[in-house]
Write a structure and sequence with these properties.
single chain; about 210 residues; alpha+beta; Glutaredoxin; Antioxidant, Horf6, Chain A, domain 2; 2 domains; five-stranded mixed β-sheet; four-stranded antiparallel β-sheet; 7 helices; 11 strands; about 20% strand; elongated
């Protein structure tokens, strides 16, 4: 069984989906990506999750993020279930759902946790950057639906901190002040962060979010 850690290259795979066969790395291209599993088709929590992702598609697009779901059921089952999702959630599923009947992708990404369920996937989430590196891993139990507002928040943080010398503090949201990373000397802060900064402690320096006007 594969073990994936932060910073690892996201394993590539080819799999059938509701939008045709996907070569994962080719499909991602130069986009960020979210790969998330759901335990099975026709399950109530998953129905609400996939409907929510469809409604958030525009927000993911604004962030250059492609979203793909997965379960161990087949394409025909997925396509029939999508009708229920569209009907009950008042939306149109607008992203692919991978059919992982052979559990190849589930095993590759360690999505089946035998002490939780020996056959069905847990609610795994992988955020992958344009270099195909794994930037975030979250695992939820099957009984707990995911918070996609939190995933958007985390993606905002990941994209900000990837391109600027900042970190984001507890409960940070887009637009809030950021932490200057320790590798930046205090004397260099004015040239790097012209909006100014506040030194709370020598190791805790706050600055306005640098990528906002």
């Amino acid at each position: 069984m594969a073990t994936i850690r932060l910073g690892d290259e996201a394993p590539n795979f080819s799999a059938k989906s509701t939008e045709g066969t996907i070569d994962f790395h080719d499909w991602l291209g130069d986009s960020w990506g979210i790969l998330f599993s759901h335990p099975a088709d026709y399950t109530p929590v998953c129905t609400t999750e996939l409907g929510t992702v469809a409604k958030y598609k525009q927000e993911f697009d604004k962030r250059n993020v492609k979203v793909v779901a997965l379960s161990v059921d087949g394409v025909d089952s997925h396509n029939d279930w999508i009708k229920d999702i569209n009907e009950t959630q008042g939306t149109v599923v607008n992203f692919p759902i991978i059919a992982d009947e052979d559990r190849n992708v589930s095993e590759l990404y360690d999505m089946i946790h035998p002490n939780a369920d020996s056959k069905l996937t847990v609610r795994s989430v992988f955020v992958i950057d344009p270099e195909k590196k794994v930037k975030l891993i979250i695992t939820y139990p099957a009984s707990t639906g995911r918070n996609f507002d939190e995933l958007l928040r985390v993606i905002d943080s990941l994209q900000l901190t990837a391109y600027h010398k900042v970190a984001t503090p507890a409960n940070w949201n887009n637009g809030d002040d950021c932490v200057v990373v320790p590798s930046v000397a205090t004397a260099d802060i004015p040239s790097i962060f012209p909006k100014g900064y506040k030194e709370i402690k020598p190791y805790l320096r706050m600055t306005p979010q640098p990528n906002l006007n």
